[in-house]
## 1
Amino acid sequence: MVGITYEDFLDLDHEPDETELVCAFYVEPAADQTPESAASRVASESSNGTWAELQVEGSVTDLSATACGIEDATVSEGRDGYRVTVAYPDALFEPGNMPQVLSCIAGNILGMKAVDRIRLQDCTWPEPLATSFPGPQFGTGVRTDIFDAGDRPITATVPKPKVGLSTDQHAQIGYEAWTGGLDLLKDDENLTDQSFNPFEDRLTESLAMRDRAEDETGETKSYLLNVTAAGGEMLERVDLAAEHGCEYVMVDVVTTGWAAVQQVRERCEKHGLAIHAHRAMHAAFDRLPDHGVSMRVVAQVARLCGVDQIHTGTADLGKLANEDTVGINEWLYSDLHGLTDVLPMASGGLHPGLVPELVERCGTNIGVQAGGGVHGHPDGTHAGAKALRAAVDAVAAGRDIEDAAAETPELAVALEQWGTE
Ligand SMILES: O=C(O)[C@@](O)(COP(=O)(O)O)[C@H](O)[C@H](O)COP(=O)(O)O
Ligand SMILES: [Mg+2]
């Protein structure tokens, strides 16, 4: 038997091996703590230690995490902050169980009194753990596997107002957006199965309009159908989406929870459906730079769990606060032990005039969603769609948007209305 205390979880000479999950935390120790004592408490409480000395069998310590790096990283004036690196042994984790992994690295430690602030900033995922998750089926491949978009961004629109439209109105807006050149219709996050626009009616009527639009345009069109609901009900909605010939489902991954996301991934594998991840509530824990869980880690978790597309912000061009859109996108494209990549979706306050700068910052391997930026067009949805598509086509072809506006009056009106900033 050995006695383990917090101090046993600190070893600044420890070199993580390739099987360990390595996490980077931002930590502000409490007044009565040193950086070392705070770091050891982070490693202990996020693996298998606690506040009292424990007498344990030697093998138990094989599951113990190690705080193996402490660097000064003050983010806010007058507050001492540190970048604390913690290495977690593979055996601590249940393969393929994301809630269990998060209960370690983003669990009780976020509420410890030993730290005034703590934020999980980044993870380096080792092969054994990473490959115990399915990853995405399609990723950025949706641009060519589902659409014939080549190297241009795919486009999407959310009917606005967010909720309150009838099923007929919703489907009609879809028709006008699709025939205006957009690839995807997207449900808003709070539109699920309300009486004014019931789920199955919305599904069948929207897909009927989709089929008409495909016939008229000769282009593939699809629908980000929001299946978010309580566990069993959500899986039934996934089955319905497949049954009616939809290529996608949309899930709000944070409000739904990762266990449910993993269930949806399994079901989508069976049907060959792509998963669009919306992230409502993410800002509850990633907005502040010195506490919580970064959007970078949320995106990593979403990729492992198998979403094909995820909202990552507009590189600060839109209406919502964004954290490191470009860095997160690069990670979503990067190699992860052979797991498929993920298509970032830029959304939130976008309009055609912002497309050149968006692509300048994020490249073309993205999705561009505009709700207000399409339906707020002075001439309506169809014109708004034509304007957005013309902007995306022009920028993807390296053309000046003003020149494109000379050929597409709808784009000229949009630029007149909202400018290019
Ligand atoms: O409800 C909205 O605000 C949107 O539909 C955008 O509408 P607009 O195009 O009309 O702005 C999206 O939910 C946000 O973009 C989500 O935020 P994020 O992409 O940052 O996750
Ligand atoms: Mg929305």
Note: The first helix runs from residue 35 to 45.
## 2
Amino acid sequence: MIYPILWQDDSVFLIDQTRIPAEYRLVKIDRIEDMAHGIKTMIVRGAPAIGVAAAYGMYLGAREIETDNKSIFLEKLAFFGQQLRQTRPTAVNLFWAIDRMLKTAQETEGTVEQIKTVLLETAKTINQEDIQTCQAIGDKGLEVLPPSPQKLRILTHCNAGALATAGYGTALGVIRSAWKAERLVRVYADETRPRLQGAKLTAWECVQEGIPVTVITDNMAAHCMKKGMIDAVIVGADRIAANGDTANKIGTYSLALVAKAHQIPFFVAAPLSTIDFQLATGAEITIEERDFAEVYQVGDTVLTPPGVDFYNPAFDVTPAELITKIITEYGAVNPGDLKQFQ
Ligand SMILES: CSC[C@@H](O)[C@@H](O)C(=O)COP(=O)(O)O
């Protein structure tokens, strides 16, 4: 099993996702600044993984605070929370984890040292819970996959796998469960421009587990569907509004449109911590815009002539009506029925 975030010898170790598949390297993180940098530069990425990393980041910040005074401690901890909140705006799990750590600190009785111990335990719990949640999503997802054909060909976008969570994955968790249940014949992985999480990370995870995987460029999906090569689409999510509108990696929306045009079921797999009930619709979701360099170059190779303008939104919002089911750890529901989880 792949675990992208490990707590060992009083430090956090992250699998450096900017290096895979060329190199498997662990980065040791001891300070909150380094965790904030790791999230911002995508050494760790994927909504649930960012949440788990932020939880450990809050503990790393907490242990740097030198005071016995609880009010001063809480004030400094809130400041560290602000630092982490500024790393990436779209994945709500980041904010969810920071808020949970702050609430735990506020509600814990005892000395500052005791609160620090409880915060470490809470970060470890968030880590463990996420692995169990993903396994539950995998099992629940299996129940709603199309009954035929027996062996499915599933298309996914970006990486919503073990690397994007504490382990097992959401969309790729359902795919893993389908593989174990002998309901899967092949994964089609969109390469996912501009950062190529599909070509690099999803393909790497599938190869690790011996799951047959075909990488296609993003603009091949409609063609593959028309040729009858795809039975279902499963993607992850970064933030889901109360009405089921779903922000996920850029390109997810067009994939949902072409799936609808070909009458192919389109599933979103995500934990409840990805649902933001404070937002009525997806129009309110903040979309991260990233460095233009991600668009104008691949590796060190510049693709475009000088004098060109660029636009680089990292996510888009798929309207709820294009989503067949949202698969959570408590079961799969119609996007309009999320309120039952509030
Ligand atoms: C289980 S991860 C779900 C999403 O976070 C994933 O699909 C995605 O869009 C990741 O984006 P990234 O920019 O790589 O963090």
Note: The chain is about 40% helix and 20% strand.
